[in-house]
Amino acid sequence: MLTGLETPTLKDLFKFLGLLFLYALPAYVLRKIFPVLAGPDYEALLIDLVLLAALYPAVRKTGFDFGRLRGYLGGLKAEARPAFKYFLLMTALLFVADQLYTLLLAPWDLPWTNTLLFWSDQSQNPATADSRLEAMLAQPFLLPAYLFTLCVVAPAAEEFLFRRWLYVATRRYLPVAAALLANAALFGALHGSDFMGTGLSGLFFCWVYERTGRLETPILVHCFTNLLAVALLLGEKLYGFSL
User: Fold this and answer.
1) 166 and 218 Cβ atoms separated by less than 8 Å
2) pTM: predicted TM-score of the whole model, two decimal places
């Protein structure tokens, strides 16, 4: 379904990495000059702005045009209902997978199984998933910017980079299953200690993109996923509620 899509080349990938480094330098200088930017409240927004600026040439190459922004937003609106259904399906599948994973590994009590269970626990640990939230709660007026970064900017940037660019590129050289697993593994690895849950989520995002052929759908599923994560984190921090 994804054949025929124009994809940025390897040259574009190196250009993206170069721009990422180039834009990160002034961002780093700004953090040093203005200490407030080094705090957890602004740092994530600064990182996402650098990522978006570095990605923009590749985004334009695939046909993005700011003049068609209203049409893009209309596409997101049209995909909201099916994306929410996919999000519910993903949430249920991840919950079942986590339970089966624990049931299969827990009885063995071996070093490698205990390590895998520890990694899974890290993915489910609200403090590990976002240590910045506690600091953010000290300045509630910054929460809207935090939510915008996590639930709008990050999903759009990550879905273009990982699904529209990297997945489509590897999809041309690998079988679908192999491309799905490779993309999920990379997506999870780049999220550090949260790589187990994030990797499985990335696998589902890829599958949704492969199934629908529309980038709007995994972007929205990603948005809903991050919004649920924030809601659970807030519930844990403010009310002691956890699943």
Assistant:
1) no
2) 0.86
